[in-house]
Design goal:
Shape: elongated
Distance between the termini: 19 Å
Number of strands: 5
Strand content: 25-35%
Order of helices and strands: HHEEEEEH
Strand order of the largest sheet: 1-2-5
Helix content: 40-55%
Structural class: alpha+beta
Radius of gyration: 19 Å
Number of helices: 3
Largest sheet: 3 strands, antiparallel
């Protein structure tokens, strides 16, 4: 499902216009982004938790040349799904 299909499906289920639904999704995404940029985690009930984690610097080895390189620390977005949602997805995928 791509973004347009998702917006159309959500608009149908909420009985709203596509433009209103697209604006609603953009507003939610903007709010989540602002909280994550401030270092806060965002928990959505029945879905999961979004959070920013810091990956420490590390040394990697180029397998072709054997050269060692230092990878600097960086921030990464992490999503941990709700246990019930994860179980439901897992069970649905095993029945197909």
């Amino acid at each position: 499902m791509n973004n347009k299909e998702y917006i159309s499906a959500l608009a149908r289920s909420t009985r709203r216009r596509n433009a209103e639904t697209e604006q609603m999704i953009a507003t939610v995404a903007k709010a989540i982004t602002e909280h994550l940029q401030n270092g806060d985690s965002v928990q959505l009930s029945n879905l999961g938790v979004f959070e920013v984690k810091k990956k420490m610097e590390r040394i990697i080895v180029n397998p072709g040349t054997g050269q060692r390189m230092l990878v600097p620390p960086k921030l990464v977005l992490n999503f941990k799904p709700n246990t019930a949602w994860r179980t439901q997805i897992k069970n649905d995928s095993t029945t197909e």
